[in-house]
């Protein structure tokens, strides 16, 4: 009797990597360049190829690691501890505690969550019967992440206008809004739209006197402002844990920490508030859940890359890179200030500039900042337009164009400053006018045209935002992005 023919065993898939990588390269060809200094927002190029290679190697080593459980993967805890120690040092918080998150938005959300839970606990201790909803007090220039956190976590926002000329909120106005309903007050170091420092010391001190946590959003400044004065820049006013009353700070490692997306530091001055950001659950039949971040399972690749970059640079390396930024920022500022029809808003504290129309010159000599940005884009430099904003007190923050200066900017200064001047000359006296009764456009049709052409008129988009009600434009942009990113029919 013959044996039956054995069934074939499981087969291994055949992996042909070349066509996959070619397809990815084709996709990437549509992206704005991430290196070389031609994009002055979103990317933070150190200009050091060896640093990028180090980050990539470190990320590859951590590729299979799950940050969910540092008791199983102790490397996660060890790398986080090193980064928290570095943050303690540069932010002057020798007892600060915290961890690494996926980015500034998560850091801000967790700071809000911790403050909200602390507020709720305090209300319970007071045996209050009707406490209402907790509130966040913040300036109009505070990052959108706090609006998102309030939306997700059930807090109200108390938004304080900023001075349209300086971009800075009035300290007394912020302090006047602090009440028993305030769970958190937020100040920026610096604000993203205008690059200026909020009055941290005044607000934090007043908040401490009322037992209200004060969060400093230093997502964009936290890894550059600590080195600014040593690198030759104007020393900023004190804003970190040296300031009494600062209870937490967010500082992004993937911005001026030069790490790949996404990694951010969130530090708390006191352990009690730090513990309030955690989520823990044992009341289910699975493994005990203890999450210090919003994510459960999380990649350790960005953590490893950030750890490697920070460890390799150290304070000396960050100072050297910041020195390049200081020189480039000073030169770009001088260039903008020499261009008729343009002006820098306020007094920037670091490497962020908001460029506005100089309203003191005759209309025919003025430069519309969004037309200026569009002209610069045609010449190969990507600047970021920001729409005008009508504030609650009736004042208007002027439309502006945002520039983030990085070490890579230093290498393209002659070309950049030439482009900034030529672009201003091209559009000087030009305007963007839309009718006040403009109907809401078809977002899906706009997205389809943008996909087909590969281009989007950002000047018109910003003009729509300024003209239509903000609620309408928010919905319009949601529909547009959903359609733009949807699979082809």
Summarize the model shown.
With 489 residues, the protein is of the alpha/beta class.
Rg over CA atoms, rounded to whole Å, is 25 Å
The helix/strand order is HHHEHEHEHEHEHEEHEEHEEHEEEEHHHH
Shape: globular
Tally the beta strands: 15
Biggest sheet: strand arrangement:
1-7-6-5-4-2-3
- Overall helicity: 40-55%
Number of helices: 15
- Summing up helix and strand content along with how strands pair, one would put the structural category as alpha/beta
Q: What proportion of the residues form beta strands (DSSP E)?
A: 5-15%
List keywords for this structure.
489 residues, alpha/beta, 13% strand
Can you give a write-up of this model?
By secondary structure, this protein is of the alpha/beta class. Helices cover 40% and strands 13% of the residues. The protein contains 15 helices and 15 strands. The chain has helices spanning 17-28, 49-61, 74-90, 104-125, 144-153, 171-176, 200-209, 225-228, 271-275, 301-337, 369-378, 413-427, 443-453, 458-467, 470-485; strands at 97-101, 135-139, 156-160, 182-188, 214-217, 246-252, 264-268, 279-281, 289-291, 342-344, 352-357, 384-386, 389-390, 396-397, 400-404. The strands form four sheets. A seven-stranded mixed sheet has the order 1-7-6-5-4-2-3, sandwiched between helices. Strand 2, helix 5 and strand 3 (156-160) form a beta-alpha-beta unit. The termini are far apart. The mean pLDDT is 92.
